[in-house]
Amino acid sequence: MSVIADVVIAALLLLGAGFALIGSWGLVRLPSTMERLHGPTKATTLGLGALLLASVAYFQTRLGIWTAHELLISLFLFITAPISANMIAKVHLHRVRIGAISEPDSIAGPPPRPDGEGDWATFEAPRRDNPASTANS
């Protein structure tokens, strides 16, 4: 049983370290803010989750102790990472739209321009001529 537990723990550690490395590398190497959000919010979150599961498995198999600290950290991380990334993306799109910042050309193409094409979730009030707007009624 100890060999199987060691293999599972080692696999979770390698998987977590790999995801964290890829996410951190994406954070450093990707050119635009919107692309850099994917590294820490997706890959690094999964990597840290695997590392925390490895910690839970280690303490259970070696010491016979169930720890809830790692599970609470994982829960907090999985709840807060998408919400914070969404808020960062909204602020970034708003600042690009009003012209407060300029974004370099990125792999995904240019950022949305304030020409009225395609509505993004920013702090702009809905327009009356938009068919999907609730302000038409």
TrEMBL record:
Lineage: superkingdom: Bacteria
Source organism per UniProt: Sphingomonas adhaesiva
Pfam families, per database record: PhaG_MnhG_YufB (PF03334)
Chain positions covered by the region annotation Disordered: 103-137
Record carries keyword Metal-binding: no
Annotated TM spans: 6-28, 40-59, 71-89
GO MF terms held by the record: sodium:proton antiporter activity
UniProt-recorded name of the protein: Na+/H+ antiporter subunit G
Keyword field: Membrane, Transmembrane, Transmembrane helix
UniProt-listed PANTHER family: ANTIPORTER SUBUNIT MNHG2-RELATED
UniProt xrefs under InterPro entries: PhaG_MnhG_YufB
